[in-house]
Every structure is written in structure tokens, then in C-alpha cells.
Amino acid sequence: MSQYSKDVDAIASLREKQGSAWEAINPDHAARLRAQNRFHTGLDIAKFTAKIMREDMAAYDKDSSQYTQSLGCWHGFIGQQKAISIKKHFGTMKKSYLYLSGWMVAALRSEFGPLPDQSMHEKTTVPMLIEELYTFLKQADAWELNHYFRDLEAAKETGDEVAAKKAQDQIDNFETHVIPIIADIDAGFGNEEATYLLAKKMIEAGACAIQIENQVSDVKQCGHQDGKVTVPHASFLAKINAVRYAFLELGVDDGIIVARTDSLGAGLTQQIAVSNEPGDLGDRYNSFLDGKEIKDAAEITPNDVVIKQGDKLVAVKRLQSGLFEFKKGTGVDRVVLDCITSLQNGADLLWIETEKPHVKQIASMVDQIREVVPDAKLVYNNSPSFNWTLNFRQQVFDAWKEEGKDVSSYERDQLMDIKYDDTELGQLADEWTRDFQKEGAAKAGIFHHLITLPTYHTAALSTDQLSKGYFGEEGMLAYVKGVQRKEIREGIATVKHQDMAGSNIGDDHKEFFSREGALKAGGKDNTMNQFG
């Protein structure tokens, strides 16, 4: 017996006990409301989705082709439409997540207006967006189930047993649109207590996976900008512990922590790590600091900070900002140490922020990490900050050159030019781009591929195209041909925007509550009927 059927029977039993006082309550309708609102709290969602992610991680460990994906969404409606689209095209939500980007929160959701990705936006905006995303995903459940319930009632009224069985099967085997969110907590928005408090809010809103980075929170930069400053491992691990405590306090025992390292592109640190003995974690962090050897105390100036690196005394290089500089070329070694340390101290997944999408580069670091932690795996940022076309064309160019192939007809620095689009090199680069996720999953330990801010770009592009036509010669045809006609022919549910916003759900509820007295909006004069 399905859960819906069980609920019908249980509510019917309750109704019978209440006698005439509950005469207006229809058990079918009450069970329908339950089915359309499966998740009552954000913690219900966090526990449900954490289980999904853990199962997906285990599946990937057995078979690297079972990687997962997500797109960053900056509004609940965008996340909802993404989920509806995935289910429509692929028949399932499996292996599909949402990503909540701190960059997009800063750029699009702050009350200060558009901000750079430097943790200047209100910290509460992040859990508010998580809650908003799940509100819209739950509404997608209610919207789809509402159609199935309408189909069931219509079939019963006409005595169509085949149609009734089909609708009942769709209800009984319904797959929710509620999927995991990997949520960006930036560098924790303060000290470890601030991180813990914000993590709790995010988990209570529904986040089962929290991504945190090893930058200094008050000078945090976008991973693809200059000026990044990292913290010693002890500071970062304290924040990982804070997030884990938040998960455990709220009963999400299998919550996921994604530890991000920006060390590949970060040349600065705010602090010299505390070291208690040679070779400990603090000593290893400090070994990467740049400086000059001190052979005589007289060489030390009032501005110098002197540490011991191995057997040498070194005055570390300190900038006017008070920050300390790492040795050039140490980024990869620092990344590997960061990742191993994070996994050995409570993190579940890694995020290595790189400057380009290059499978061999990523794999070279992951291979070193896996020598110590064999099941290490990544969340990887398929970032719009990369010029994907130029990067992959240059990768093909370099590979051909190394093979001894003639590349004299191509100019490496000009490969973005449209004239290369239909060339052999351009077409092969497109194939490499197409296969990047598959190759990265198989060869570089990438469990989850995400694009941080794709819907920022799609919103801008589609708005530009509509504006160009509508305010130009095309006029209304720009909307009709470029938007509405495509919605109709491609089966985009928003063409019936009243229904998508909940009009039919509301009408049905009115009928539940007021019965014959319900004043409904979906009658014959509703223009939504023009769309069939």
C-alpha cells in the first residue's frame, strides 16, 4: 500500500472518530495535502538530502562514471525551473544537485546592491536563499502532484480505469524535486563561533553540504581574483570542526563538509603558524614562507619577523600590509598538504580552486593526495571565469605541438578568433570541452561538477536578446518568436505562468475548504486556457 493510501485510511479513521464535526473533511483531500508537502522543516530536507549525497559518494567510489552535477542558482524560481527541466528531459533527479554560490549572493541578493565576492554581503542572506530554493522546489512537487491528482479525479469521474491507474501510479511512485544543495559559507564570515552560528542557520534551512574555504574571512576574495590570503591549518580546521558540531547538534549526523583550498592562487598569509616541534603542521606551513636567511643577529631590522626553517634562521618576507609572502612555486605543495590535512581532520570532500580547467593539472594534485587518502574526491568548479574556448583550443594546440604536428596555421594567442571555429583544432577543442566532466571524473577524482554562476549569465544573455528585438524592429515578435512560441513547442511549463505560480493549486484548495462556495480563478474565461 502506498503512503498516500495509508494516509487516506488513517485520516478517514480520524474523521470517523470526530463524528459530524469533521463532516466537511474529505480524507482524500487531506491525504493529498500531505503528499504535496512531504517536507515540513529544513532539517527534514537536510537529513533526506545528506543520505542522497552519501549514497552518491559511495556509488562514485565504486564507479567513477557515476559523478554528480549542479548549476548555481540565485533565486528559488531559477532552481525550481532547473529541477523541473531535469526531470522533464531525463525522467529523474538522480545525480543532480543545486549549488548556492556566495558570488551570486553577493552580486544579486545583497541589500547593499551588487557587491564583489568579498564576504561583504549579509551573512543571513545565505540561509534565506537556501530556504527560498527549497520553498520553490517543494512548490514544484505540489504543482506536479496537483496535476496527477486532477487527472485521477477526472478519470474516476468518467470511469476510465486505465487513466485512473496511470495517475495513481504517478502519485505512488512520485520522485521529489527536492535535491541536495551544496551551500557556500565563504571563509566562515568571522571566527569559528561565527562560522558555527551561520552553519546552523544554513542547516536549519535545509543545507546538507557546506563548502568552506581556507582564506582569511575579512579579506576574502573570489577564487579567480588576485590578492587571496590563506590561514594556517589550525584556523581552518577549527572552522571545519565548527561546521561538524553544527551538523551534529541538529541531528544531521551524515552532513557533508567540502573543504576548499585557494592555495594554488594565493601567495599570501595573514599569520605565521604556531609550531610546537619541528615537522609539525605549523612548521610545515611556515616552511613555505619566503624570506632571507639570517646569519648574524645584527642583520635583523626592527621590521623583521624571524622564524626557524629547518636549520636556518629566516627573516620572513613581510609586506607593508603586514601580510607574509609564500615562496614562488609552492602552490601545488601547499594544496596537497591542505587537502590531506582537511580530509584527515573531518572534511568529506575537497575543492581545489584552479586557474584553468585542465584534467592533467587537477589529476597531478589528486594523485598525490590519494597516496595518503585513497578515496579522496573533489567538488570542482567548472567556472565561467575560465575562457573555456580559448583554454581548450590552447590545450589542443600544445598537445599537437608536443606530438610534432604542424601548428603553423594557428596563432596560439589568437585562438579565440571566430575563424578557428570550424577548423580541425576548434572542433577537437569542443570535443575536449564536451568530455571534460567525464574525463575529470575518471582521471582526476572529480565526484561533483558544478558551474558556480551560469544562471547569472543566462539571465543576462536572454534579457539582452529580448531587449534587442522588442525595443527594435521586431517589436512584439521578439517575445512571441524568441520566448512564447519556444515555450509552447518545447513544453516549458511556465507558458502557463498562472498554473506555475500556483493558481490551480489554490483553486483546488478553495474547493476543499469552501466546497460549492469556492470562487475559483481557473474557469473558462481564464486566458491560460489558450495554451491547451
Automatic annotation (TrEMBL):
It holds the Pfam family ICL. Transmembrane segments: none annotated. It comes from Salinisphaera aquimarina. The keyword Metal-binding applies. InterPro entries: ICL/PEPM, Isocitrate_lyase, Pyrv/PenolPyrv_kinase-like_dom, Pyrv_kinase-like_dom_sf. It comes from the Bacteria. Keywords: Lyase, Metal-binding. One of its GO terms (molecular function) is isocitrate lyase activity. This is Isocitrate lyase. It catalyses: D-threo-isocitrate = glyoxylate + succinate.
